[in-house]
Write a structure and sequence with these properties.
This protein has 256 residues and is mainly β. 8% of the residues lie in helices and 41% in strands. Strands 1, 3, 4, 6, 10, 11, 13, 14, 15 and 17 form a 10-stranded antiparallel beta sheet that branches. A 7-stranded antiparallel beta sheet has the order 2-5-16-7-8-9-12, with no helix packed on it. A hairpin with a 3-residue loop joins strand 13 and strand 14. It comes from Gelidibacter gilvus. InterPro entries: AL/BT2_dom. GO terms for molecular function: hydrolase activity.
């Protein structure tokens, strides 16, 4: 038994070492939320209300077992530093938790925000960060397509097919996935020029020129929302908006 465990641990160390040599950095250590910052609507930065974000069995959970009601507590868990051009990989799946008083669209819905404003600049009563979102969805009704890896734009705008797209969310070309299925996701970002979304290794969406603009975000500091400002970098954050979800294998490789 001990030799098997030792062999497994050595294999894991070797795999991690090889990834590091190839330029990959693990953002989540699999043990705790070190290097991550919480911001939840109605709460100050750093207040992880009701232990919303937690680590269990090697995954980051969005967990609502400490809530009596959701009360619009849209939350985000930010990695401690911003990135500009990079390749991000992560895996997610939903849980069977969903807060009944959350908006209906949040059912089997979450996301990863990127090019986000600094969490330190987000006001207590600001609902979402000014950011771009890799939106994650799962099947809601049988026979009704519901792609994942979509783009949403709280306080931002993007160009799609060469033109500014007025939609808040743009659907990807992905298949519909089940709620409890681990989905491999990738986000490839080249500063303020090109963004590519992948699902299970397949490109499903591409757009350009992410910039500040549009609506949806409320309660922000107007000095931060400079419409038309191109987004060359920003923070990465995991979303919590009433639906339980788990994340793992979060790693990044910086690009030139």
């Amino acid at each position: 038994m001990s030799s098997c465990l030792s062999s497994k641990n050595n294999s894991e160390k070797t795999d991690t070492s090889l990834e590091s040599q190839k330029g990959w950095q693990h953002l989540f250590n699999g043990k705790d939320l070190k290097d991550w910052i919480v911001k939840i609507h109605h709460h100050d930065v750093g207040d992880n209300y009701a232990d919303t974000f937690r680590v269990k069995d090697g995954v980051i959970q969005v967990n609502y077992d400490g809530y009596e009601k959701f009360d619009q507590r849209y939350g985000h868990l930010y990695y401690k530093e911003p990135f500009s051009s990079y390749h991000l990989k992560f895996k997610y799946r939903f849980t069977d938790q969903w807060m009944a008083d959350a908006p209906g669209y949040t059912y089997r819905n979450s996301g990863v925000m990127f090019h986000s404003q600094d969490p330190a600049t987000i006001l207590k009563e600001q609902d979402w960060p000014i950011s771009v979102e890799y939106q994650m969805l799962a099947r809601e009704k049988d026979g009704v397509p519901r792609p994942t890896g979509n783009m949403c734009s709280p306080g931002t705008e993007v160009y799609f097919h060469g033109e500014m797209d007025p939609r808040h969310c743009i659907d990807s070309s992905s298949e519909t996935h089940e709620w409890d299925e681990w989905v491999s996701s990738e986000l490839i970002v080249y500063g303020d020029s090109l963004v590519i979304h992948k699902v299970n290794g397949k490109k499903v969406l591409e757009y350009t020129k992410p910039q500040i603009g549009g609506g949806v975000v409320n309660g922000y500091d107007p000095k931060i929302k400079v419409d038309g400002k191109r987004l060359t970098e920003g923070f990465i954050a995991l979303q919590a908006e009433g639906q339980g979800v788990e994340f793992k294998d979060i790693k990044i490789k910086k690009l030139n």
